[in-house]
C-alpha cells in the first residue's frame, strides 16, 4: 500500500468510477442523491492507493509492451517506401546525422536514405545504410518496479457500521462465559450484516445501531439518517411479506426476518413516535417464531432469538392483557431439547405465567362496584395464581441465588430501612451501608432486578385481593430498593455495561407499582438518567396509556 496527501479528487467512490464531477457533499453527494444510489461520501484524510498484485501485473504488462514496441521501431529500416513497392530507394553513404525540428536542412548533393519519422517526440533519427541502430535507453531496476498510484479508496461505510454495531452490542448484550445470558443473538449481528443479501435485514440493523449511537452522542445528522434507513427497512419488509403471502406454497420465515422484526422494534424503542410502536414489531417477531414452530427453534441463531423473544413476549402479553404463546408446554420443552435450560430460561418460564394474571386483575377491578360477587370469585382465582407464581419464584431463588446473587439477603437486610429525608440517593445508601456487597457482573445485576420486579408484580396482585394490603408493602419495598441498587451498579459501570433494554422493565415496575411515593420518585429520576445516558430516552419517558390507567385505578 502507498499513501498520498496530494490534491487528488476526494469525491465519492461512485462518482470516481463513473468519471463525473462530485460536489463532495456529506453525507451523500448530489449526483448520488439525484440518482437514488447509495453514496460512500467524500474521502477524507490520508488517501490509500491500491498496489495489489493484480494492479502490479497489469502495470508490468503495459510497460513490457511499450518496451517491445520501442525496440521494433529502433531496429527496422527507416524507409519511406514500402517493401512491396517496385521502386528501390535511392541510397548514398553519408555520415549519420540527426535532423531536429529547428536545425538546418542537409546540403544539396548529399542524398540521405529517406526514413520514416520516429515515434519519439523530440527528434527524428536518420541512419545510413551500414550504421547499426543507436542503443536504446535501459531503465534501472528501481524504475522498472515503480508503479503509478490508482484512485482506489477503501469504503468507509463498513468501518462506521462496525462502530455503530459495536456500540449497540456492548450496550444491549448480557452474556455469560457459557453463552447462556440474555440477548446473546446480538453477537451475531456482524456476521449477519456481512453475509445476508436481504435488504430488510441490512436496513433494520443499520437503522437501529445508528439510532442508538446518534442518541447517545447527540448527533442529529446520524438520527436523521437512521430514520431514513428505518423507512427503507420497513418498506422492504412489507414487500417481502406481501410476496411471501402471494406465494403458492406457504413460506416459512427465516431467522433473518425474525431478527429484522426485533431490530425494528428496538428502533421504535429508541426513536418512538407512538407508545405502542415497538409492540407491533415485537408481536410480529413472536408471530413469526410461532409460524416456524418449536422444532425450528432448537439450535443456531433461531434458538438465540427465541430465548430473547420469550422475555419480550412477557412484556407484550402484560401490556396487551394477552397470554403468551410461549407459556404452553411444547414451547417450554421442545426448543431446549438440544440445549438444556440455563437459570435465566427457568426464570422466564415463571415470568411467562404473569400475563395470565393481568386479565383477572382488570376484571376484578372493573367489577368491584358493579358485581361484588363476581369480583370476589375473580379475586380468589387471582390470589391462587399469584400465590403459585410467588411460591415458584421463592423456590427458584433458593436453588440459584448462590450463583446469581450470593449477597442478596445480606444486602437487603443491611438496607431494610429506607433513607431518611434529605440524605443521599437510595442506590448510594445501599452501596455504602452494605460494605460493597454488590453484584458480580452486569448480567447478574439485571437478573436480580428482573427477579425483584416479578415479585413486586405478584405481590401487587395478591395485595389487590387482600382486605389488609398494607402487610405486603414492606416486602414490595425491599424488592423496589433492590432494583434501584441494580440501577446504581449499572450506572457505576457506564453506558456499555449491557442491559440497556432489559433494565427498563424493572425500573418501570417500581415507578408504577411501588407502595411508597419516595421510591416511585427515585425510580422516575433513575429512569430519566438511564434513558439520557444510553440513548433510549423515548421508551423510558413514554408508557402505554392503558397500563397507567389500569394501575392508577387499581388498589395499591
Architecture overview:
The protein has 556 residues and is an all-alpha fold. It has three domains: 53 residues, CD2-Gal4 (Irregular), CATH 4.10.240; 189 residues, no CATH class; 204 residues, no CATH class. 58% of the residues lie in helices and 2% in strands. The chain contains 23 helices and four strands. It has a two-stranded antiparallel sheet. It has a two-stranded antiparallel ribbon with strand order 3-4. Helix 18 runs parallel beside helix 20. The longest helix has 33 residues. The chain is elongated and about 110 Å long. It starts with a strand and ends with a helix.
Main attributes of the structure:
single chain; 556 residues; mainly alpha; CD2-Gal4; two-stranded antiparallel sheet; 23 helices; elongated; disordered N terminus
Explain briefly what this protein structure is:
Helices cover 58% and strands 2% of the residues. It is an all-alpha fold and 556 residues long.
> For the residues shown, what is the average pLDDT?
78
Oligomer: single chain
Domain module tally: 3
β-strand number: 4
Secondary structure: helix percent = 55-70%
Biggest sheet overview:
2 strands, antiparallel
Q: What ranges have pLDDT less than 50 throughout 5 or more consecutive residues? A: 1-7, 73-134, 418-424, 431-435, 544-556
What Rg is obtained from the alpha carbons, in whole angstroms?
38 Å
Order of helices and strands: EHHEHEEHHHHHHHHHHHHHHHHHHHH
Amino acid at each position: 500500500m502507498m499513501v498520498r496527501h496530494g490534491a487528488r479528487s476526494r469525491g465519492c467512490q461512485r462518482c470516481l468510477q463513473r468519471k463525473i464531477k462530485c460536489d463532495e457533499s456529506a453525507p451523500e453527494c448530489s449526483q448520488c442523491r439525484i440518482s437514488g444510489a447509495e453514496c460512500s461520501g467524500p474521502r477524507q484524510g490520508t488517501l490509500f492507493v491500491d498496489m495489489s498484485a493484480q494492479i502490479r501485473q497489469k502495470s508490468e504488462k503495459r510497460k513490457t509492451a511499450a518496451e517491445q514496441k520501442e525496440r521494433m521501431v529502433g531496429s527496422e529500416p527507416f524507409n519511406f517506401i514500402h517493401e512491396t513497392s517496385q521502386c528501390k530507394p535511392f541510397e548514398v553513404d553519408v555520415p549519420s546525422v540527426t535532423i531536429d525540428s529547428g536545425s538546418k536542412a542537409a546540403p544539396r548533393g548529399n542524398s540521405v536514405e529517406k526514413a520514416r519519422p520516429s515515434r519519439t517526440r523530440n527528434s527524428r533519427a536518420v541512419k545510413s545504410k551500414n550504421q547499426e541502430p543507436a542503443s536504446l535507453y535501459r531503465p534501472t531496476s528501481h524504475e522498472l518496479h515503480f508503479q503509478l498510484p490508482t484512485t482506489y479508496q477503501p469504503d468507509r461505510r463498513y468501518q462506521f457500521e462496525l462502530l455503530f454495531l459495536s456500540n449497540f452490542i456492548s450496550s444491549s448484550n448480557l452474556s455469560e462465559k457459557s453463552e447462556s445470558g440474555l440477548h446473546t443473538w446480538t453477537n451475531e449481528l456482524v456476521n449477519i450484516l456481512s453475509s445476508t443479501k436481504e435488504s430488510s435485514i441490512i436496513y433494520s440493523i443499520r437503522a437501529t445501531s445508528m439510532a442508538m449511537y446518534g442518541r447517545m452522542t447527540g448527533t442529529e445528522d446520524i438520527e436523521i439518517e437512521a430514520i431514513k434507513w428505518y423507512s427503507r427497512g420497513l418498506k422492504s419488509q412489507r414487500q417481502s411479506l406481501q410476496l411471501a403471502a402471494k406465494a403458492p406454497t406457504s413460506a416459512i420465515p427465516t431467522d433473518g426476518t425474525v431478527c429484522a422484526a426485533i431490530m425494528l422494534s428496538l428502533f421504535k424503542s429508541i426513536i418512538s413516535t407512538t407508545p405502542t410502536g415497538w409492540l407491533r414489531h415485537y408481536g410480529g417477531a413472536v408471530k413469526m417464531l410461532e409460524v416456524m414452530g418449536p422444532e425450528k427453534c432448537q439450535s443456531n441463531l433461531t434458538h438465540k432469538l427465541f430465548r430473547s423473544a420469550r422475555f419480550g413476549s412477557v412484556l407484550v402479553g402484560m401490556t396487551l392483557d394477552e397470554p403468551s404463546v410461549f407459556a404452553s408446554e411444547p414451547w417450554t420443552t421442545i426448543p431446549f431439547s438440544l440445549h438444556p435450560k440455563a437459570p435465566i430460561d427457568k426464570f422466564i418460564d415463571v415470568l411467562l405465567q404473569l400475563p395470565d394474571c393481568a386479565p383477572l386483575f382488570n376484571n376484578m377491578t372493573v367489577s368491584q362496584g358493579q358485581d361484588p360477587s363476581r369480583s370476589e370469585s375473580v379475586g380468589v382465582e387471582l390470589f391462587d395464581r399469584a400465590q403459585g407464581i410467588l411460591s415458584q419464584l421463592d423456590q427458584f431463588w433458593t436453588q440459584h441465588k448462590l450463583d446469581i446473587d450470593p449477597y442478596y439477603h445480606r444486602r437487603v437486610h443491611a438496607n431494610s430501612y429506607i433513607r431518611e429525608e434529605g440524605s443521599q440517593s437510595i442506590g448510594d445508601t445501599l452501596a455504602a451501608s452494605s460494605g460493597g456487597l454488590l453484584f458480580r457482573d452486569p448480567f447478574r445485576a439485571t437478573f436480580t432486578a428482573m427477579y425483584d420486579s416479578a415479585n413486586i408484580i405478584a405481590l401487587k396482585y395478591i395485595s389487590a385481593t387482600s382486605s389488609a394490603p398494607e402487610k405486603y408493602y414492606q416486602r414490595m419495598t425491599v424488592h423496589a430498593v433492590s432494583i434501584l441498587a441494580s440501577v446504581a451498579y449499572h450506572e457505576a459501570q457506564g453506558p456499555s455495561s449491557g442491559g440497556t433494554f432489559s433494565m427498563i422493565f424493572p425500573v418501570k415496575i417500581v415507578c408504577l407499582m411501588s407502595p411508597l411515593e419516595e421510591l416511585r420518585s427515585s425510580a422516575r429520576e433513575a429512569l430519566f438518567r438511564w434513558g439520557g445516558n444510553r440513548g433510549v430516552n423515548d421508551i423510558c419517558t413514554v408508557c402505554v396509556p392503558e397500563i397507567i390507567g389500569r394501575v392508577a385505578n387499581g388498589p395499591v
